[in-house]
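Appendix B, Record 12. Input sequence as logged:
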Amino acid sequence: MALQCCYGGSTIQTLKLASIPSTAPLLSSAICSPFKTLTITPSAHLIKALSSPAAVVDSTTAHVVKPQWKAAIDFKSIVENKSAVAENLKNRNSTASLELVIELYERLLQLQKEVEDLRFERNTVANKMKGKVEPLERQRLIEEGKNLKEKLVTLEEDLIKLTDALQREAQCIPNMTHPDAPIGGEDSSTIRKTVGTPRDFTFSIKDHVQIGKELDLFDFDAAAEVSGSKFYYLKNEAVLLEMGLINWTLSEVMKRGFIPLTTPEIARSLVVEKCGFQPRGDNTQVYSIEGSDQCLIGTAEIPVGGIHMDSILADSSLPLKYVAFSHCFRTEAGAAGAATRGLYRVHQFSKVEMFILCRPEESNAYHEELIGIEEELFSKLGLHFKTLDMATEDLGAPAYRKYDIEAWMPGLGRYGEISSASNCTDYQSRRLGIRYRPESSTSPPTNTKKSKGRNLSPPEFVHTLNATACAVPRMLVCLLENYQQEDGSVVIPEPLRPFMGGIELITPKSN
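Logged structural output:
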């Protein structure tokens, strides 16, 4: 049950809308350098991009805050693989402008060259003044240096604004896509595997809402009064079932070498953005905290991804495998209809998330490992489900490839998504600044001070992967509807019983 992203044209749903802050003064329409005449005539969309603010103004304090964060985007690769990137944008139905990104990048290279030339000229003037110079010549050099400084300040300001404009546009470009991913919309997704068959009921089946009401497991009405729609109270055995699911899932995943975590459930907006999610704007899925740069997390993927932000990991530490429990908060903006009934789509829920950081050449294999863990967990619970290879238009911006698992929900009369597993390659790590230093296989390590650091390999960006091990509300839907009995009771799957104090059956309460 992945939180999807809005970068790159994919839809992201969020939990609270936040107003967009007012912006800084726009860049002058004259983008040409005062130092040299430009050979590139800026297009209309280039001028529009450069006219966007390079920094934002905090309206409460009326001062300019620092410009946006920078992603380590491989612009050279984008230019060299323009056709492949354009095809990828088309396949994902992305609205990102590749032409504008390339135009901004070429302008940036030209402006960087102008700045370098001007700095060289200024240094030359400064060096001339170090020697014995006639008074008139010294005065001329002082004036020349002053003029060069003024031009350099203007150019450097333009360079900052141009860099920010390039970042804004380039961050909209989604990850590349696995060559085997189906092309098209959600209907083009293909079935990789089907496990089990639907249960054959010999009585009239109920959905989880009716089951929960009769067994006194939920209270949606009181929650609506306290918190609003799409909130709920769990009661009685439903509480034990949630705790049992969480603890059983954690114990199963930890057997496979995953480090257990509980995470902060509030994250800074920049971390949310660096993971590929949009915390503000229309139809955002993220609840933003008014008057701050913080958000409620929609998935533990966000705080777990931020643990190693701006760090270089040792090669020997990889892979890093985490299994994290957290509460998740989503606005579910735009969601309506029967598909949202009861627990299926809610604003707050508990979830167990798997997250892996690994070497680039290993990410495809770990993707298969993650989907294998999910399939094994759901098989042990006796669920009937199918695994899908999701089509390009259904991929969030960070995902290189994504598998979804949809389980049969007899009360709802359809399959519903209960899990997903995504390989994000280096999309998130380039934004979060997570790298590792490969161990050198050609030169033996040395301990001498003189050669310290000479044999170190350059750091590379890790690959990140995430997968849902247990999204509690959807699992409650599946278990209650699939294990309901004719007398109104619900059987507890055997693996969960030791984690629920030995309870085998949820039975109607006596009046």
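The first strand starts at residue 14 and ends at 16.
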